[in-house]
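Revision sheet: structure tokens.
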Amino acid sequence: MQSKIQIRKFQQQDLNQVAHLFDAYRQFYQERTDINLALRYISERVVNKESTIFVAEDDQGVLVGFCQLYPTFCSVAAQPIYVLYDLFVAPAARGKGVARQLLDAAVVCGKENRKARLDLSTAKTNLTAQALYEANGWVRDHEFFTYSYSLE
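Predicted:
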């Protein structure tokens, strides 16, 4: 029997479970595990009201995924947007539509909060995520390159 997944906004009692998911997300992108960093980072985002986090909870109360939206602006459009920077589903819950449900929640949130659009990026090698995004109406940008400059 497949468990039912509920998508909802982060609540304070979710902190430990979300931090563990966030730590696994960072490891997916080749970062070293650091649960204290994960706890601190997620806690700061929530306390400072700097992001919106959605969680995917199974019928046993276990969080199996999350996504995190950061509010920002598009100067060219002169409108507010969200950046969906983090999206992660635990390996055991993959292939069950959890990521799609999290994406849907992000879209609803963006519309409710009058954002002009949602942006995201993923690794060029993450073909599974790319297929999911495109199947759900996300359009790959072919006009702009993304650059970063490290300040460390």
